[in-house]
Backbone:
């Protein structure tokens, strides 16, 4: 299967630079898998497409201000770092811009000293901060939210992004990108979903560097996902398994929740509690074990996310839905509109 099969024409002006003024005022395309039909609504209408007894699974990871600007101490040359994963002791893996070699000393934001310890290739480095104590608080002060590159950095300000590039149920720090399907929910909408008899279960997958890495192979089967850390608590697995046993649907909010569920599920679809790393890559031919329906945004051409939704709904159905979304001027990507595959 070729990566080039997963593409579509998207006018640049449909790439959302800002979210909707109100979170749940974004548009919602409902795609019926069995019939291949499409409906058009607002995200606030999502409860109309849920059924009492369903369980809605959200990813409660929290994005941290992982982007840092700095200078090399020897030359003053500019450096940018995207912190990807904490390794303990003030050490992080980072995706870096600016030529740096092991041993190079960097000063971030005029106050955080660090040294490059290792070059991992493809712009990835291991860096160690001089003062690990209180580092997270310092990063929260001087770091910037890691917006995707297709969002113009001058279009929105940092305080705005710290609130809107974060779900209202974000809890566990560790992501370098938001689970964007969840950005459409308000506390009131979450309450409405629960009040109608839909259980909300929380899992965690810390979205990592793979979100920013393009698929560089020609054949889909040759792509290897970056590992991401996930956790399913006993409370979440109990709620999910109980709903399935009672005939309810498992509705994943976002591809990250879907990948967590599929990584934690056994062959019968029963979700096991626990934590670990996942490299799960779902593309057409993959059979979902735990996920029955999916809330998701509109994704980049040739991306692993587009391949995952194609695995769930069928490639032809998804590409037809994307053509319709373009025709109806839906807004695309992280700050854009949503789709409900059911």
Residues:
């Amino acid at each position: 299967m070729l990566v080039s099969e997963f593409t579509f024409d998207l006018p640049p002006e449909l790439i959302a630079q800002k979210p909707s003024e109100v979170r749940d005022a974004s548009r919602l395309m409902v795609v019926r898998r069995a019939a291949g039909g499409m409906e058009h609504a607002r995200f606030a209408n999502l409860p109309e497409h849920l059924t009492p007894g369903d369980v809605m699974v959200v990813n409660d990871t929290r994005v941290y201000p992982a982007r840092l600007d700095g200078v090399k101490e020897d030359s003053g040359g500019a450096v940018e770092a995207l912190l990807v994963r904490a390794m303990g002791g003030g050490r992080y893996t980072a995706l870096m811009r600016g030529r740096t070699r092991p041993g190079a000393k960097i000063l971030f934001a005029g106050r955080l000293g660090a040294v490059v310890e290792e070059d991992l290739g493809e712009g990835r480095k291991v860096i160690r901060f001089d003062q690990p104590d209180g580092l997270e608080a310092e990063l929260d002060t001087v770091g910037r939210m890691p917006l995707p590159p297709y969002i113009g950095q001058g279009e929105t300000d940092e305080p705005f992004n710290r609130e809107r590039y974060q779900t209202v149920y974000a809890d566990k720090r560790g992501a370098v990108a938001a689970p964007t399907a969840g950005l459409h929910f308000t506390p009131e909408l979450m309450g409405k979903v629960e009040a109608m008899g839909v259980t909300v279960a929380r899992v965690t997958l810390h979205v990592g560097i793979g979100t920013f890495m393009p698929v560089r192979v020609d054949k889909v089967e040759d792509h290897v996902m970056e590992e991401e850390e996930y956790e399913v608590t006993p409370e979440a697995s109990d709620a999910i398994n109980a709903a399935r046993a009672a005939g309810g649907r498992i509705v994943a909010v976002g591809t990250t929740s879907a990948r967590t569920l599929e990584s934690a599920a056994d062959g019968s679809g029963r979700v096991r509690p626990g934590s670990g790393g996942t490299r799960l890559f779902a593309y057409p031919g993959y059979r979902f074990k735990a996920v029955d329906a999916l809330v998701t945004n509109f994704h980049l051409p040739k991306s692993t996310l587009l391949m995952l939704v194609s695995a769930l709904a069928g490639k032809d159905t998804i590409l037809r839905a994307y053509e319709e979304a373009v025709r109806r001027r839906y807004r695309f990507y992280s700050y854009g509109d949503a789709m409900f595959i059911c």
Notes: The domain at 67-142 is CATH 2.40.10.240 (Thrombin, subunit H). The helical segments are 135-142, 158-164, 187-195, 234-245, 255-264, 304-313, 315-327. The chain has two domains: 3-63+161-341, 67-142.
